[in-house]
Design a protein that fits this description.
The complex is a heterodimer of chains A (467) and B (216). With 467 residues, chain A is α+β, with helices and mostly antiparallel strands. Chain A contains ten helices and ten strands. Chain B has 216 residues and is of the alpha/beta class. Chain B folds into two domains: 134 residues, Rossmann fold, CATH 3.40.50.2300; 61 residues, Winged helix-like DNA-binding domain superfamily/Winged helix DNA-binding domain (Arc Repressor Mutant, subunit A), CATH 1.10.10.10. Chain B contains ten helices and six strands; from the N terminus they run βαβαβαβαβαβααααα. The longest helix of chain B is centred in the last third of the chain and has 15 residues. The chains are: A alpha+beta (467), B alpha/beta (216).
């Protein structure tokens, strides 16, 4: 699957989660809000209605408690009025906050148990913050047969202004307005507590939605990551296998071409060479001078043979297939010594033909590359190649006494040659180990191949042929 | 043109080369010499073995690179079985490793395919007399890399015998298995011991196991 495509899929999934969460969040909070405001309104109405009923009852009670005096008195009996006012002063409920107040028709205070300083003073023009004339409205409500009015007033227990729901009635004979009221702050407190409760629920829901959304996104990413890693592992393996296949293919091709050239074309040229010689001999028997062109052809043919052999050897050393690795390494070493005058000491097993072709080729290429590096960079004077079979491992060591090389550069692709990294991969392909150590005292390249990669190779090939 | 007839009988030659054109060219060249006769030609080591056993030629002109069984392995078996037949390796390869391997296998001479038919003729004649012959370029590489027995590799034949021994066969049984004489097997065993510098049978077996020749 394409990486871009996978990323897009993941993005779509994340987007969907985010979108779903947002929509859920929106509707849930909206529902909550609607629900809470609805129930708040209902509750408020209920509470207020309750209060109103209470007030009506209190007032009715208050009125009936003075009714015997009021009904019998004449309108201007000040003595009775004062008795009644005193009775009202004494009518308290709800602790300090429930009391009765009395004003006359002109707005002059007659009785106020909690604020006695008001008595005798006129409050006709008393206004609240929004400009409503409180006493006038109360009077008006009273004259209209009793009514409710909400206004701010000092709450005794609180010693601060609070919303008050007032109820007033009218004693027509005396032109008195009698009123009482409840402070609404505790109603509001109750309501706000409910509001808080609901808000807490909302934010809890919000948190749950957030957690679900985040963990979903996390899961998507985790899943994506796992899929990605798996895919990467698979891809790496495939790339490695492909690389090995290319190398194997290349080596096989090279071996094939080398064989075709050496055992095919060269043999044909050799046969032509003998035919030319036979021709020369035939001409000789007829006592005719051997033509110069024939000599020239023979000499050119020799050049061609040498050239093709050189190319064939360059492609793939035939000695590796014919005589095995040790012989091929010896040939390689003596060529190297001839070219560079650097001595190579080889330790090798007496047994031969122990390894399959592909391992032979890999090890040969390792030594070839190592010698190329030594010739180019190491300035070595001695090289040792040891090639041993021990403890279920075949170990090949190539060490020199040169100047070593930079560790960081050791896996860089060189301008010439195969490169150590490639060789390491080839060795790993045979389940082997490849290690390079280098310091100023020289370089050592070690290849180890487990016996399981080559055991019984000799039996399957040469041994069977001789049975 | 000199044609030396050293005896009344013609030297019989078996040509072994996987390339028919080379066989033809060589046969054409050698036909100019009266004292040698190409009695047969074959294209691989296995056929060469069969033909050699039935025809018992004086000389086998043996290529190295061939399918099925190469010339060096075939040489070893043939010299084991019919020591009177001399083998002249005739190869494109000039590395000294090929030459030493051929000598160890029992070849009497080694010439390059690059040579003239005169040298081929001369080499056949020489080894038929029981002497050895090497092309000059090859002789040079032999001088540069002399054969030291203690430093020598096992031959394929020796390795096959080592494998049989490691599998628990006695020399007699190996001789029967490979259809060669008991003395030949014993000679091989001595060579193996010398080359590996090993005396005991147990060590021989361990060597074979270490090198993946037999399963432990």
């Amino acid at each position: 699957m394409n990486v871009n495509f996978r990323m897009r899929l993941m993005l779509i999934a994340v987007l969907q989660v985010v979108l779903t969460s947002l929509v859920t969040y929106y509707f849930v909070t909206k529902e909550y809000r609607d629900l809470s405001s609805e129930s708040l309104i209902t509750l408020e109405k209920f509470l207020i209605d309750q209060k109103k009923q209470e007030l009506k009852n209190y007032t009715a009670l208050a009125k009936s408690s003075v009714n015997h005096l009021y009904s019998q008195s004449i309108p201007d009996n000040t003595a009775i009025k004062s008795v009644v006012a005193q009775i009202f002063d004494g009518l308290l409920y709800n602790g300090d906050d429930g009391y009765f107040f009395v004003y006359d028709g002109n707005g002059t205070n007659i009785s106020h148990p909690k604020e006695p300083f008001r008595i005798g003073k006129n409050y006709w023009e008393l206004e609240d913050e929004s400009g409503e004339k409180i006493i006038q409205i109360l009077l008006n409500n009273a004259k209209n047969g009793g009514g409710f009015y909400r206004y701010p007033w000092l709450k005794p227990s609180l010693k601060a202004s609070s919303d008050k729901l007032g109820y007033s009635i009218y004693l027509e004979k005396w032109d008195w307005m009698i009123g009482t009221g409840v402070y609404l702050d505790d109603v509001y407190a109750q309501l706000s507590q409910l509001q808080n409760e609901m808000d807490r629920h909302t934010s809890k829901t919000k948190q749950i939605i957030l957690i679900v959304a985040i963990s979903s996104i996390f899961m998507i990413f985790l899943f994506g990551l796992i899929v990605n890693l798996n895919q990467k592992k698979k891809t790496d393996l495939k790339i490695n296998q492909l690389g090995q296949r290319i190398i194997t293919l290349q080596e096989n091709e090279r071996r094939h071409f080398s064989r075709e050239l050496h055992d095919g074309i060269v043999q044909i040229l050799i046969s032509i060479k003998y035919s030319l010689e036979a021709t020369g001999r035939y001409i000789g028997t007829a006592n005719i001078q051997k033509p110069e062109q024939l000599n020239k052809a023979q000499s050119n043919l020799n050049t061609a043979i040498q050239e093709i052999r050189r190319i064939s050897h360059h492609l793939h050393p035939r000695i590796l297939d014919e005589l095995g690795l040790t012989a091929a390494l010896e040939a390689l070493a003596s060529e190297f010594t001839e070219r560079t005058a650097v001595n190579i000491h080889i330790v090798k097993p007496a047994a031969r033909k122990l390894l399959p072709d592909n391992i032979n080729t890999t090890l040969y290429r390792v030594v070839q590359e190592a010698l190329t590096n030594i010739e180019k960079h190491a300035k070595a004077t001695e090289v040792a190649i040891t090639f041993e079979f021990q403890n279920n491992w075949l170990t090949l060591n190539i060490s020199d006494n040169g100047c070593g090389f930079n560790q960081e550069l050791k896996y860089e692709q060189p301008p010439q040659g195969i490169g150590l990294r490639n060789l390491a991969e080839r060795v790993e392909y045979h389940s082997g180990r490849f290690t390079v150590t280098s310091d100023t005292g020289g370089t050592n390249i070690q290849v180890m191949i487990p016996k399981s990669s080559f055991a019984n190779h000799f039996n399957k090939t040469s041994f069977e042929a001789q049975k | 043109m000199t044609i030396n007839a050293t005896s009344d009988r013609k030297i019989t030659v078996l040509l072994v080369d996987d390339h028919p054109m080379v066989q033809d060219g060589l046969t054409a060249c050698l036909s100019y010499y009266d004292d040698i006769q190409v009695v047969a030609a074959c294209t691989n080591g296995k056929d060469a073995l069969d033909k050699a056993l039935s025809l018992k030629p004086d000389v086998i002109l043996m290529d190295v690179s061939m399918p099925i069984m190469n010339g060096i392995d075939a040489t070893e078996i043939i010299t084991d079985k019919i020591p009177d037949t001399k083998i002249l390796i005739f190869s494109m390869h000039e590395s000294s490793e090929f030459v030493t391997s051929s000598i160890q296998a029992g070849a009497s001479g080694y010439i390059s395919k690059d040579t003239t038919s005169e040298e081929v003729y001369f080499a056949i004649k020489t080894i038929a007399e029981g002497k050895t012959h090497f092309s000059s370029s090859i002789a040079m590489s032999l001088i540069e890399n002399p054969i030291r027995p203690e430093n020598e590799k096992l031959t394929t034949r020796e390795q096959v015998i080592l494998t049989w021994i490691a599998r628990g066969l006695s020399s007699k049984e190996v001789a029967r298995k490979l259809n060669i004489s008991y003395r030949t097997v014993e000679a091989h065993r001595r060579n193996i011991r010398t080359k590996l510098n090993i005396e005991s049978l147990a060590e021989l077996v361990r060597y074979a196991v270490n090198h993946g020749l037999v399963d432990p």
